[in-house]
């Protein structure tokens, strides 16, 4: 918790104006959060806090890099991070998350910890498909396979349809037979 305490902002007694905070951290930040997504990284965050009588607006600008494992080769690589996000904290009677950007906090809150917001914004800026930079230039994509290269593993079609063609016409589901009779009676 010592590492995360650097991200505490005392809001009690702040005047209604804009405040700037600069925060910097590395591996200890990610270790302290007890998560499995990111283990190593280094980043700087500039937080602009704008306080008014009814809310606090937080604007986060985070730059740095994190170490990820390539999904294809399992080689570690550095992924740059550049994130610009904001959160609005409205004062209310309880703590509640309304949307991704708006939360209600108790009006008696003395201090907020912005570490969870910073981590969420870093995690959201990561690519879904983690590819080593040397592989990103390749034209290969899973969707680019030729039709010749696709192997059919399972098929629901019957193999010998020509042999059973006559038998399948004779074996009609009784429900369909009843429906055909109804259709025939309307003519």
From TrEMBL:
Biased composition (Acidic residues): 153-170
Organism for this UniProt entry: Dyadobacter koreensis
Superkingdom classification of source: Bacteria
Annotated Pfam families: YceD (PF02620)
Protein name: Uncharacterized metal-binding protein YceD, DUF177 family
UniProt lineage: Bacteria, Pseudomonadati, Bacteroidota, Cytophagia, Cytophagales
Region described as Disordered: 153-175
């Amino acid at each position: 918790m010592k590492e995360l305490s650097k991200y505490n902002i005392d809001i009690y007694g702040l005047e209604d104006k804009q405040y700037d905070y600069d925060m910097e951290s590395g591996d200890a930040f990610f270790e302290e959060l007890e998560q499995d997504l990111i283990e190593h990284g280094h980043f700087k965050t500039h937080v602009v806090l704008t306080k008014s009588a009814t809310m606090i607006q937080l604007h986060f600008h985070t730059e740095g890099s994190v170490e990820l494992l390539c999904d294809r080769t399992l080689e570690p690589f550095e992924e740059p991070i550049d994130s610009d996000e904001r959160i609005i904290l409205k004062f209310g009677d309880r703590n509640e998350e309304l949307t991704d950007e708006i939360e209600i906090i108790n009006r008696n809150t003395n201090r907020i910890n912005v570490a969870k917001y910073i981590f969420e914004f870093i995690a959201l800026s990561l690519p879904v498909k983690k590819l080593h930079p040397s592989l990103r230039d390749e034209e290969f994509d899973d969707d680019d396979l030729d039709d010749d290269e696709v192997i059919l593993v399972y098929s629901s079609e019957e193999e010998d349809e020509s042999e059973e063609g006559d038998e399948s016409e004779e074996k009609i589901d009784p429900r369909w037979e009843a429906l055909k009779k109804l259709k025939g009676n309307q003519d």
